[in-house]
Structure formats: C-alpha cells, structure tokens
Automatic annotation (TrEMBL):
Any one GO cellular component localisation term in the record: microtubule associated complex
Binding locations of ATP: 104-111
Name listed for the protein in its UniProt record: Kinesin-like protein
Sections of the chain in a coiled coil: 453-487
GO BP annotation list: microtubule-based movement; mitotic spindle organization; spindle elongation
InterPro entries named among the record's database cross-references: Kinesin-like_fam (IPR027640), Kinesin_motor_CS (IPR019821), Kinesin_motor_dom (IPR001752), Kinesin_motor_dom_sf (IPR036961), P-loop_NTPase (IPR027417), RuvA_2-like (IPR010994)
Compartments, record wording: Cytoplasm, Cytoskeleton
Single annotated GO MF: ATP binding
Annotated ranges, domain Kinesin motor: 21-346
Length: 652
C-alpha cells in the first residue's frame, strides 16, 4: 500500500550572467501652485537621460546629471512603467528577484508614482497585472508542463517596527536570514491570487491600513515605508521536476523631511526622526558599497535590512527618483540627485533560484510473520463477575502518524526523509509487539472465568469492609467535635503548644472577637480527640520560650460597660531569653566563619565584619555588642538578635 503526495527537495543554485548595475530613473512632478510656477523650475531636462540644476555656489553655473532615464512633468504613468519597469517582470518568472522603489523628499509624488489612482494606476497595480498576464500567456502557450503559484504580501516599516498590512494583528515582526542568505519575515501573511480582482480585494483595504498624516507640505503624507512582495513559484510537472522561485519587491519609501518646513510636532516629529534615520542609514549603505568597505551596515536599520537584496544584493533593481520643481525644494532636490548618482554606481549580482522537486511515494512496511501472528491472537475483554470473557476480532493497526507530516514538508533532504521512514517503521513494529504482549498478559491475569469471579468477589467484600471502617471513624470524629463545641473556651485557651510553635516563626494574625460573639472551636488536624484547655495561671511545660499574656484592661473595660478593647499578646520568657542569648554569644565568640554564617540574618559579608571586629577587640561580652561594629546598622543588629534568640528557643 502506498501513500503518494510527499515531495523531496534538493536545492540547486545556478548563477546566471554577470554583474548588473542598479537602474536609476528621475521623474519631475508638475507644479502644485501657480504662484510658484511663475518663479520657474529649479530642474531642467537635457534630453531623455540628462538634467541640470543651478549651482547654489555660483549662479552663473549649473550642475548636470545623467541617469538611465529622465521623465518630465508631462510623462504619463504608462510610459514610466513600460520603459523602466516592465522589462524587470520577466525575471520573476525565471526564478530571479527584481526590485522597484521610489525615492525622494516628502511631497515629491512617490506614492502617486507607485500606487497612482483608479483612473491612472501606478507601478504597483500595473506590475501585478503584468505578472498575471505573463503567467496566463505561458500557461496558454504551454502544454501543462509547468504549474504556477502567485502569492502577495504587504507590510510597512513604522518607527523601526515591521507591521503586516494584510493581517493587522501581526505587529513588530522580525526579519531573518536563511542559510542561503535570503531575507524573509517569519509570520508575514501571504495571500494567493489568480486574477487581478483578487489582488484588489486584498490590496485596497491593506492600503488604508498604512500610516499617513497631514503636514504643511502634504495633506496625506506617508509616515512609513511600505513594501509589496509578489512571489511567483513555477514548478515543472514532468522530469526533471524543476522549481523556480522569483520575487518582485515594490517599495514606496517615505520622504526625507525638514521639520522647519513641515511644522512637525509631537508624534509627527518622532515619526520624521525615524524616517530620516532610516534614510540616513540607506545613504551609509550606498557609500559603503561604492567605497568597497568590508562591513556594509545593513543591520543598522529595518529598511536597509529588507533592501539588502535590492541594494548591492542579488536582484535586478530600479530606483525611480521623484523631484519637485519648486524653488523651496532646491536643497532636497540637490541632496536627492547626489544620492541617486551614488546609487547608480552600485552593482548587483542576480542569480536564478532553482530547486529539483521529484515526487516520492512512502511505502508501508509489508506484513511480517509477527503481524500475521498478532492477527490470530485472541483479544479478551477485562473479566467481570457477571460477564464472561468475550473473543473479539483484532482492532485495526494505527495508520502511520509520520507520513502526513512528511507530506506537508517539502524541504527535507534525502537523508532526513530516509531517517524518518526508518523511524516510522520501527515505531509501528514496536506497537505491534506491544499489542501481542498486552494480549498475552491479559489472558494470563484473568485466567478462567470461574477463578476470576471468585477473586473479584473477594476483592469486593474487602472494599465494603474498608468502607464500613471508614464510616465508623468518621462518626467518632463527628461526636468528638460536638463534645469540643459544648466545652468551647476562648480562642487563646484553645492554642496548644504544637499550634503555637507551628506559627511562632511567621507572622501571626489574630481576629478581634467581640464579647457578644462566640469564637469558633479550632480543631488541630493532628489531634485525635477534643482539645484540652490551657491553664493561663501556670506555665505549660510545652511552652519554653514564648508565653501568652492576658491583657490587664479586659476586666476593667467590661465593668465600665465597654466592649473590651484588650488584646492577648505574646511575650518572650526573660529567664530563657538569657539562656538562649548565652548560646548566641558562644557562636559569636567561636572565631569561625562557618558558625557565624549559620546564624539567622547573617550572611558571608556580615560574618566577616563580625569576625574582624572579634579579632581586633576580643570576645563579645553580650549580644548587644554587635551594635558597636562599623557597617552594621542598629536595625540590622536588632533583627539578628531577635531572629537568633527565637531560633535558639525553638531549637531548645
């Protein structure tokens, strides 16, 4: 019998091509204010790839930049997508990663470039639609040789914490790296999509979950970096069963902010600080890559950690730099273009992520001679006095419990699968042997039906006898309790020496009992009979160190018609106190550190202080001499004296 469906994976990484530089495109948004438009633009295009801005050091000169593409204010969303992004989508269908991210100051139009509107969609919806279209074309052109799976994830980085936008309950997710140096986020939700309508169903509500706020420069400013991840898995259904995994990162970065212009205060100021810090670390990463430093500070920020594959990593990357033409944005435009020029020098090394996936069938071990014998064993029900043993057919053997687990795991190596198969076979064989032994033992214990009936009847009679004895003991204890209740005494006279010393070392609480209210009788669990009253006029031989003192004002308050405010108190015996103080004094004068640490409230440090004072000044004359030792507060000395006197009283 076979159990199909389990797949065995063997990872194979095939590196393709050579180094690929990061592609940089610049987009200039139109003016938002006509008054600003009259002053003129600070950015001027010099063709399809070059632009210039005025030099702030010299008005007569200009600074020229050249990139892979330059889009002016009249360029449409569709042209930007087809010329800069569309050629990256095919890489995801062939097991490679691609990244597109928008960079620029706040209010420069990054979110419009990436998301767009329903009438004029941006790069994100166009890219998802393009991938779905490409997969549909390959399915139609093929003969069913390849199977495709597309999953989408959406997250944001807000104040250096990763939040899942598809599942809002997933907060502060961690970023990890597997053994193949791939960056992933455990716990990030994935939604499988087959058409664009399903993507809109997940993306539109998730976009509303992104953190935004209003500033002086933008009515709906992004307060976080957002990343949309599109994962495409392409699996071959025939030999050699290849599997290609490609990922597309679509990143909308939050813009750098000048708080003097935005007027940020409170939480907005804290948000802008986190945004500027992450973008500053991104600049450090670019500088480290261009200068060839040994350490690239990817881990200094959550943003750079996620962009590790896009900037200097193993993916095809395209940066779309957004600029604002207003004169008030000149400083931001200058720094943004310098960053873009540095990013253009970065070189990535993409490769194809490919694994071999071949179907594997788990076989159950064939029934052996032992299994046949186990099927012929007579299985009997437990013997009862009235029901004879019944012969039943053997129960079915349990199904393999490791096989479903193996079917769900698709990344186990060959050696691990072989070990799990052997483990499953050994466990099933042992279960069969134990079943045979259990059946044999039950048959030997029960014996014949007649003998088992006599044995069980005898056990039943013994149980009834024990129940009668327990019932009689319970009645005797109940009668003793009623007798104690009739002869009940005040609470203080019902305390025996055992109960007193049981609670003398801990905090003793007493309830104030009014004269009109009768106290309840207390029965110690160690007493077999009623409690004996304690004579308060004579010292009990059981009480050696503590005795109970009756209040003096109890009688007076009763005669005056009051309720009696007196309380019973515990007082130490002076005679025994001196005797126990002498014992403590002998320990103090022993001159041994081990004996000193055996005292209550005396640790190793205090014992060394006491021993040093004893060596310099001679033996102690009384326990109170401890107060003369420097470093021992008087309160600490009082605790040491009280604790050890009581301890010696209990031990004597």
């Amino acid at each position: 019998m076979t159990t199909p469906g389990f797949h065995r994976h063997r990872s194979v990484i095939a590196r393709n091509g050579g180094p690929v530089p990061v592609r940089v495109a610049v987009r200039l948004r139109p003016f938002l204010d006509k008054a600003q438009q009259e002053k003129g633009s600070t950015v001027r295009g010099l063709g399809e790839k070059a632009l210039e801005i005025c030099n702030w050091r010299n008005d007569q000169e200009s600074l020229k930049y050249e990139f892979d593409a330059f889009y002016d204010k009249d360029t449409s969303q569709d042209k930007i997508f087809t010329t800069s992004v569309q050629n990256l989508l095919e890489h995801t269908l062939h097991g490679q990663n691609a990244s597109v991210f928008a960079y620029g100051p706040t209010g420069a139009g990054k979110t419009h470039t990436m998301v767009g509107t329903s009438e004029d969609p941006g790069i994100i919806p166009r890219s998802v639609y393009g991938v779905l279209n490409a997969v549909a074309k390959e399915r139609g052109a093929g003969d069913g040789e390849w199977a495709y799976s597309i999953a989408v994830s959406y997250l944001e980085i807000y104040q250096e914490k990763v939040y899942d936008l598809l599942e809002t309950k997933n907060h502060d997710l961690q970023i990890r790296e597997d053994r193949d140096r791939n960056i992933f986020i455990p716990g990030l939700s994935e939604k499988t999509i087959t058409d664009f309508q399903q993507f809109e169903k997940h993306f539109v509500p998730a976009s509303l979950n992104r953190t935004t706020a209003s500033t002086k420069l933008n009515s709906r400013s992004s307060r976080s970096h957002s990343i949309l991840l599109l994962k495409v898995v392409k699996t071959q259904q025939v030999s050699p069963f290849r599997q290609l995994t490609g990922k597309l990162y679509l990143i909308d970065l939050a813009g750098s902010e000048d708080n003097r212009k935005t007027g940020n205060q409170g939480i907005r100021l804290k948000e802008s600080g986190a945004i500027n810090t992450s973008l500053f670390v991104l600049g450090q990463v670019v500088d480290a890559l261009n200068s060839g430093q040994a350490r690239v500070p990817y881990r200094d920020s959550k943003l750079t950690r996620l962009l590790q594959d896009s900037v200097g990593g193993t993916s095809h990357a395209c940066m779309i730099v957004n600029l604002a033409p207003e004169e008030s944005f000149y400083t931001d435009t200058y720094t943004t273009l310098n960053f873009a020029a540095k990013s253009k020098q970065i070189v990535n090394r993409p490769f194809t992520r490919e694994s071999i996936v071949r179907p594997h069938v788990l076989k159950r071990p064939a029934d052996s001679a032992t299994d046949g014998a186990s099927k012929r064993v007579r299985i009997e029900e437990p013997c009862t006095p009235t029901t004879p043993a019944v012969v039943q057919t053997p129960a079915k053997l349990p199904a393999p419990f490791l096989s479903p687990l193996l079917r769900r795991q698709d990344k186990f190596e060959t050696s691990m699968v072989d070990r799990l198969e052997k483990l499953e076979t050994a466990i099933l064989a042992r279960m069969r042997r134990e079943s045979v032994l259990t059946t044999a033992n039950r048959a030997s214990v029960c014996g014949t039906p007649g003998q088992s009936r006599e044995v069980l009847l005898q056990k039943l009679e013994d149980s009834r006898k024990q129940l009668r004895e327990l019932k009689e003991q319970q009645e005797q204890q109940k009668a003793a309790a009623e007798t104690a209740k009739e002869n009940e005494q005040p609470l203080c006279q019902q305390l025996t020496s055992d109960v007193l010393f049981k609670h003398s070392t801990s905090f003793i609480r007493r309830k104030k009992v009014a004269e009109t209210e009768k106290p309840k009788a207390m029965v110690s669990p160690v007493q077999a009979g009623p409690l004996k009253p304690l004579n308060m006029d004579q010292d009990s031989p059981d009480i050696q160190f503590v005795r109970i003192i009756k209040p003096k004002d109890t009688v007076k308050t009763k005669k005056e018609g009051g309720k009696g405010s007196g309380k019973w108190q515990l007082e130490t015996n002076p005679e025994l106190q001196e005797k126990h103080a002498a014992g403590v004094l002998d320990v103090l004068n022993s001159g041994k550190l081990k004996k000193l640490t055996s005292l209550q409230c005396v640790g190793d440090k205090r014992a060394r202080l006491i021993l040093g004072w004893w060596q310099m000044n001679g033996p102690f004359k009384q326990v109170e001499d401890l107060k003369a030792i420097p470093g021992l507060p008087s309160k600490t000395v009082d605790n040491i004296i009280k604790g050890n006197l009581l301890c010696f009283g209990m031990s004597s």
